[in-house]
């Protein structure tokens, strides 16, 4: 019996890396009975007589997991958000941040295409960068082609398991190319660019990039808050979470309640009104969703 990590899952096979060898394994039948699916990123115990024939015997408990993309034990999510083409979208960025925070994954924000901005727009984007930094997020503003300092960028990936998030066209491929030029990604669709054609099976795989692992996945296909309760939402806005103990009422949703420390902080400009507006919008979305039976 040996220990390893699942690096790729495709068609019922799990490719487990142990030391420097990849073992092709199947899952035990008991997983199906227990409705357990091994995920890329899982640490597992397996048994294999040779690299072509092995069985995953057990899965270690996960630190976190994503369903779409299906990957476990992720250290960070690199959210790529372009400053222009497509225009910077703070609402979408906050949506990504809430979803990632809710999975206990550390977000890192890259704002791309700085060089394509007009002067007044650069000032606005720099204000946003400052805002997210003050909240406590690692936030980088980088140019579209040069991605000035690849070694600095690489340091974000070293010794981490990362997922990449962001809408189409924001520069995800350019970012990964700067960190690891051997990838030679040509389109924004990371999965396709790694050499898989449009008609091949989409699967998740951990790819070595910049001294770490990046989940090469078809991307975040669900951006709804179906797993988040109304009273949890504030926990995923760090600047709201740190003030909730000061609200008069326990379970305060920071909406219509009196003597709310969060609303006071918005009034005092200690919490950005844009972030609070997005919080209220997401809260309304959670309240409006239909119950699942």
From TrEMBL:
GTP binds at residues 112-115, 166-174. GO terms for biological process: ribosomal small subunit biogenesis. One of its GO terms (molecular function) is GTPase activity. The keyword Cytoplasm applies. InterPro entries: G_CP_dom, NA-bd_OB-fold, P-loop_NTPase, Ribosome_biogen_GTPase_RsgA, RsgA_GTPase_dom, RsgA_N. It comes from the Bacteria. It is found in: Cytoplasm. Residues 72-221 form the EngC GTPase domain. Binds 1 zinc ion per subunit. Keywords: Cytoplasm, GTP-binding, Hydrolase, Metal-binding, Nucleotide-binding, Ribosome biogenesis, RNA-binding, rRNA-binding, Zinc. Its cofactor is Zn(2+). Zn(2+) binds at residues 247, 252, 254, 260. The keyword Cytoplasm applies. One of its GO terms (cellular component) is cytoplasm. HAMAP family: GTPase_RsgA (MF_01820). One of several proteins that assist in the late maturation steps of the functional core of the 30S ribosomal subunit. Helps release RbfA from mature subunits. May play a role in the assembly of ribosomal proteins into the subunit. Circularly permuted GTPase that catalyzes slow GTP hydrolysis, GTPase activity is stimulated by the 30S ribosomal subunit. Belongs to the TRAFAC class YlqF/YawG GTPase family. RsgA subfamily. Monomer. Associates with 30S ribosomal subunit, binds 16S rRNA. This is Small ribosomal subunit biogenesis GTPase RsgA. It comes from Lentibacillus salicampi. The gene is rsgA.
